[in-house]
Amino acid sequence: xxxxxxxxxxxxxxxxxxxxxxxxxxxxxxxxxxxxxxxxxxxxxxxxxxxxxxxxxxxxxxxxxxxxxxxxxxxxxxxxxxxxxxxxxxxxxxxxxxxxxxxxxxxxxxxxxxxxxxxxxxxxxxxxxxxxxxxxxxxxxxxxxxxxxxxxxxxxxxxxxxxxxxxxxxxxxxxxxxxxxxxxxxxxxxxxxxxxxxxxxxxxxxxxxxxxxxxxxxxxxxxxxxxxxxxxxxxxxxxxxxxxxxxxxxxxxxxxxxxxxxxxxxxxxxxxxxxxxxxxxxxxxxxxxxxxxxxxxxxxxx
Length: 302
Known about the structure:
Blueprint: H1 10-21, E1 27-30, H2 35-43, E2 49-51, H3 53-59, H4 70-81, E3 88-91, H5 99-111, E4 116-120, H6 139-152, E5 159-164, H7 167-170, H8 172-184, E6 189-192, H9 198-207, E7 212-215, H10 227-232, E8 237-240, H11 243-262, H12 275-282, H13 284-290
Parallel strand pairs: 1-8, 2-3, 3-4, 4-5, 5-6, 6-7, 7-8
Helix pairs in contact: 4-5, 5-6
Protein name: Methylisocitrate lyase
Keywords: Lyase, Magnesium, Metal-binding
Organism: Gordonia araii NBRC 100433
């Protein structure tokens, strides 16, 4: 029975994430700002779900400057992870404190059903990776953070990804050197934050042997490369962290303006998700069949 949680076990999702990273096929992980969005990501055939720290903080009405807590991130991440059969990677910022806090973060995210997380080498508290004024810790400090995280996991399939923000601060060569140190510390995946263009992505790929993740966020410092370009460059995964939130908020703002100006939402209907499609994603008919003595509603159009 998978009406109330995922039909795939946490361990099997983690195995799927690892298998995808070594499959030779680019793993596409759109950001999901809610469990319902995660269901749609799965329905449309993507390989995984990403849970963005920037999106989670924005959804709480907060800027992405390290204000969210481990419990908030794990709680929302767990809701999203259990809504889909896909593996899910979550943004764990700097691990929410010192290396011991990073270790606790891994245990908490495992318990929440996530398939992996990434930890970054910014100072704590962090800021959005595409803002100016970032600062990174010494390489040795990040190595301690990663070693603590790797040592804390109980499921060997849980993916620990290391994100380096050093490109914008120390340059790409330093970022590559950091990535190599993070691989030695046990990272399974390297997140190359805020690279400028295809040439930099290619240079990073040539220098680092383990799977690499690209961030294709809008309005940031990176050139927006296509999935095919990233695949040709040898990248293993790509995230679109804030895309669905930006699409949704753009539509919400436009719709609210029209209601305010015209006094009705009638002109917006063609752009809305229809009730029948929402019911399809939510599997109303399956709930109805589960116990007709209790769930005896009629589904419009069924």
